[in-house]
Amino acid sequence: MLVRNFKDKDIVAQSYGAGVEKRVMIGPKQGAPTFVMRVFELASGASTPYHSHDWEHEVFALSGKGLAVAEDKEIPLGPDDAIYVSPDEMHCFKNAGQDTFRFICLVPLRGEDAP
Predict the structure, then answer these.
(1) What pairing do the DSSP bridges indicate for beta strands 74-77 and 35-42?
(2) What are the φ and ψ backbone dihedral angles of 6, each rounded to 5 degrees?
(3) What is the DSSP string of 74-90?
(4) CA nearest to 5, candidates 31, 32, 30
(5) Is 28 in a helix, a strand, or coil?
(6) How many angstroms separate the CA atoms of 94 and 68, rounded?
(7) Distances (CA, A) of 108 to 5, 42, 73, 111, 114
(8) Around Cβ 89, how many Cβ atoms within 10 Å?
(9) Which phi and psi (to 5°) does residue 10 adopt?
(10) pTM
(11) Closest of 59, 61, 20 to residue 43, by C-alpha
(12) Using one digit for the tens of pLDDT, what is the confidence trace for 43-56?
């Protein structure tokens, strides 16, 4: 087993757009062969890029207020909410509040940058 803390100094925040940071908590560098767990933080007013890809992912909101944006709707998200994003579905996540919107995002290994 492996335990990592979000605040560990070796978990470096990567920019994922203006006001968006991504931290890989568990992935191939930690020996995970199939999935990657990332934590995203969106500053007030920030948004991930609007995009699609051929893999699913699951998101679990930790703190703040957000929106999951799809082609035809915006779904409010808050702490303890989970959402499934289907393969090839256009989507992005937006911070809808004043505080940081933080969430966990799980993707298959091919959905993450190469180790």
Answers:
(1) unpaired
(2) -50, -30
(3) EEEE-TT-EEEE-TT--
(4) 30
(5) helix
(6) 7
(7) 21, 22, 25, 5, 12
(8) 14
(9) -85, -5
(10) 0.93
(11) 20
(12) 999 999 999 999 99
